[in-house]
Every structure is written in C-alpha cells, then in structure tokens.
Amino acid sequence: MSKDKTTKKKSSQTSTVKGKLDISRSGMAYVIVEGMDKDIVVRPNDIGRGFHGDMVKVQISPDSGRGRRTEGKVTEVVTRNQTTFIGNISLNKNVAFFKAATEKPMPDFYIPIEKLNGAADGERVVAKIVKWDKSDKKPEGEVVSILKSEDVNDMAMKEILIEAGFPLAFEKAVLDDAMKLSETITREELKKRKDYRDILTFTIDPVDAKDFDDAISIRNLDNGNYEIGVHIADVSHFVKPDSILDKSAYERATSVYLPDRVNPMLPEKISNELCSLRPNEDKYTFSVIFQITNRGEIKHKWIGRTIIHSNHRYTYEDVQTIIETNDGLNHKAILLLDKLAKGFRAERFEAGAINFSSQEVRFQLDEKGKPIGIVIKESKDAHKLVEEFMLLANRTIAEYVSRIKINQEPVPFPYRIHDTPDDEKLKPFAAFAKKFGYTFNIHDDAAVAASFNNLLKDVSGKPEQHVLEQLGIRTMAKAVYTSKNIGHYGLGFEHYCHFTSPIRRYPDVMVHRILQECLDKNVKPDKKMEEKCKHCSDRERKAMEAERASNKYKQVEFMMDYLGDEFDGIISGVASFGFFVETVLHKCEGMVTVRDLNEFDEFKLDDADYALVGMRTGKKFRMGDAVRIKVVAANLEKRQLDYHWVQDEGKTELNVAKAKKQTKHKK
Predict the structure, then answer these.
(1) Which domains does the chain have, with CATH numbers?
(2) pLDDT band at 586, cuts 50/70/90?
(3) pLDDT of residue 443
(4) How far is it, in rounded angstroms, from Cα 632 to Cα 50?
C-alpha cells in the first residue's frame, strides 16, 4: 500500500490529525496534513487558539467525507509558528490591547499595564504572546520593544524579521546562560584534544565578518606530503543538548543576514567571542586533517577535536591580492592551497558537479542604513579556495557517518541533499536552449549535468548567458536537510552534510554532536531527527525569504532617488500581466505591466518562448532581452518598483503600429 493511501486510510479511522494551519484573509482556514490529498476546512469559529502557520491538532467532523469536503475543528496548538508580532497599542484608561499589523485575522492581545514597558496609546510596538489560558477570551501579551517612527529603516528591517518568525532579541535567561560560559582553556579539556597551536593557521573571511567559524592550517610533512587541517569552531562544547541556549538556537535554526544587520542564531558572547576563531587566541575546534600529495591526492584523513591558535586573519581581498601577485604574508602556503583547491574543483566538475554561478549584491549604507550605492559581489579565486576546502570537509564527515550502522540501521543524521531536476521543468528549458543553438541531453542524470556544464561554458559572455543561467537554476530542486540520504546532485556528491558553520547553522551543531558520538562509539539514535531536519529546512527557507525581502526593500529605497531616470536592463521574467526587468548597473528588479504596453499593441504570454508577444506587430519581449526602462514608481511599503519600457525611436516597429493607430483615431 502506498504511503498516501495508508495515511488517508488512517486519517479516516482516527478523529484527530496534525497539520499546518493556513488562515485566509476572509477568516476561513485550512489545515494542511502531510499525505492527505485535500486540506481540512476550518471555519472561523473553529480555529480556536491557532494563529496562521501554527502546527495544530484538528478534530475531523464525523459528517466529513462521503462526497462532502472534510471539515474540522482545531483542538490544540502543537507549536507556534510565530510568538512575536508587530502592531499598535490601544490604551483606554487602565486597559491596554495590542492589535497585530497582519493581513491574517488574529485576536488582539490583552496587555497588563505593568507589561506595557513604557508604550503609549497608538505607538507601534513589538509584542509577544505570553499565555492564553482556557478561561481567557483573549491571549495575554507583553510589549518587547517600542518602534520609533523616526528610524524608518530600522522599523522596516525589524518588521521583515518578525514576519519571517525570527525573534528580535534573546531572552534574558539565554543571555545569562551565555555569560556564565568560560573562555578558560582547561588542562582536562586539553587532554581530550590534538594540539595544533604550533602549526601555521589562519582564517579567510569577508572584510566585515565578526564571527570566524572556520580556519585552515598547513604544514610540510617529512614524507614530502602536506598536512592541511580544516578547523571549525567547537560550538557543541559550549552549547549542550536541551540547555536554554540549545533550545533558543534550535528555535532560530539559522542566523539571518540582512543588508544592515545580522540576526544571530547564538548570542554574541558565543558567536563573536568564545567560538570565533580570532587571531592570536587559543580556541577549541572540531577538525578534519588531510594528508595530501603535491598532485592533490588525499592519502589520509583524521577527524576529531583539537585546539588551535590562529596566526592571522585574512580578508578575501587580502588573499586574492596574494594569488594575483604571488607575493605577501604566507604567500607560499596560500598559493599551494589555491593550486590544490583548483584541482579539487576541476575533479568535482569532471565527476558531474554543475558549475552554476550567481551574482549577489552588497549595499553601501549611510549611518542611518539608507543605501547610497550597490556593489556586485564577485566570486573570485580566494572565495573558491575556501569553498573547496569546506566542501571537502563536509563531504568527508558525511562519508564517515554514512558507513556507521547501529543494529544494521544507518545513524540518524542531518544530510544535506539535493534532488535531480524535475522533468516537467527540464523539457521546456531544453527546448528553449535549442532556440539559441544549444543541444541538451536529458537521457539520464549524468547527461543532464554534462549538458548543463557544456552550456554554461559555451554561453559565457554571450547575450543569452543571463537568461539561460537563470532558467537553468529554476529547473533545479531545492537543497534541504533530511535523514534520508539521496546525495547532492548539484555538487555531484554521494554523501554530503553541513559541518563547517555551527555558529550560524543549527544542523552543523547536530552534525558535531553525532560525529562525536560516532568517534566515541556511543551513538544514541535520535528518533526525532527527520522532524528536526524539516524544522531546519523550514527556518532556512524563512531566512532566505527575509533576506530577499530586505534586499528588495533596499533596492526600492535606493531607486527612489532615480525616479524619472532611464537605465539599461535585462528582462528577468515574464508573466501574463507584464515582464520583470533587472537593471544592468544595480541589479534592481521592477515590472513593466501589460497595461502600460497596451497603447502600442495587445500582448499575450507565450509560455514556450518565455516571452510576451504583440498580437498585431509580432514584437517580442523575451526573457534575457536587453531593454531600456524608465523608473516611474517606487513603493517602499509593497517593496515594489514600477518601470516603463522606453522605445528605441526609429528601430522599433511599435512606433509604426502606434502611428497607424493614432491616424485611424483622427479619421
């Protein structure tokens, strides 16, 4: 019997199931249950104490089924999707309420006067739900902070974090717990670790980084080989399972990186002090040590806990200069690492890894967080050097754990997996690429990977590069965490996990703990591993949504100074209602609507050609086309840019069509 059928049968026999609550603007709600074909309908009066996005238990109505839609009633909130909200205070005499600023219906919070924390009537605040007893009609809350309207930027970023379900600050108990941790290196702990303090070690990070969670060591061995160590901050030494710190880190599951701030997974005491591999300080680390020949052959691997002493802190720019000039501090070591990294990279692509590259933007901000410039970040050899050694460490750890069995069963472990492309997305992409003269073999997964790499190499520097890269990425599955190891298609790895960033990712902390259990031969299988993986994947997705929203906000804010100006752009997407354009200079995306094009022609969407096509003129606006646009509107609240298409006078047939149309009207 299939899983879906089993789940369906079970749900019809039991009266209560668990699922995610999705509340519509109208107040009607639906509970999405994994394995059920249709969602359970919940009427407004039956939502109980559930908020949008909560994991809830729902009691299915006995009249449901048998040709009727399945209805139910929320009986319990299992986990809250969000506990902190942004909204306004309503204060009348000695009674205060908080009204959340959300499109989804939810009850007001009763706020005791002593929990207003100085908030006045009408003020914009951050409030959290404290309790909701069965006897209470409304939930009780307290004001966490007051949002000052004069700092619009700060308020906008906080709202984005709150919308994504990330707390703005750590609870006092969490901070107190962090402050109790000692940075003293003890003799007892030293006995458990390999001492690497006398070996050349350094970190390579962005210029503005404060948390250095990975370092590389290198030394020559007597046998002519090199010993290269990848050393990772030992967060699990300080953050113990089920502690207040651990629960707080798990709840967030990831740090969130916005243009003007980091919302960290761990308090600064840990992320920027205790675990940050700062230069000239002894630090506890978890390491993978490789013995490598001059030709890049790995002869031996060792995994375990260590202590290191970083000799120097490099920025990516520092290392790039050394690579380009063959000169600088420790240049021989860095040039050797660069040579080995390039060899590992070439091997990966030969083995089936896909060479996708993406451009990122970095905002230059003034003292108030207002963007005054946009810089396109490039991935250079220095970035690739670090990337290759981190990939090697992650892969090595996953391979090691995958070989261990407990009662003939694999160890429950948070693998990082990436599925093969979806056929339904791949076929139209292959057909589209063929229009540009690129053949695409979709016979099997290996052929698809080889085709992608050939295409990415052939398309480099050509006008269609951007569109084919973007569409190619869209055919790909999303990488996620799961205990069901199916490998990482994009990287071409059979086994892969995240081990190298425990300061900012909770799955890495889980990996460290399980790894130590494996080394100690004392594995305690975690029955909730898949649930934890799903939570971490969900939090990662929410963090990415917040990062995208904050980047979009800054783009709109930046372009407000350019209303009425014209820019060159590339069509980055098409839809029946218009086409999206990304400016070449700043990578700011806005929309040209079909409504604005209607004065020239009637445009219809051609799905197969990723284009809008004029019904009379045949004029095409195809994804990847270069166009000229004018910035006509910038809406910060909606994080939306509106562009108008600027005609190229004398070159476009639309002018002819427009002239004929105007002449006809005059007659």
Answers:
(1) 3-79 (2.40.50.140), 92-174 (2.40.50), 186-351+360-410+493-527+537-547 (no CATH), 416-491 (no CATH), 563-666 (2.40.50.140)
(2) very high
(3) 83
(4) 42
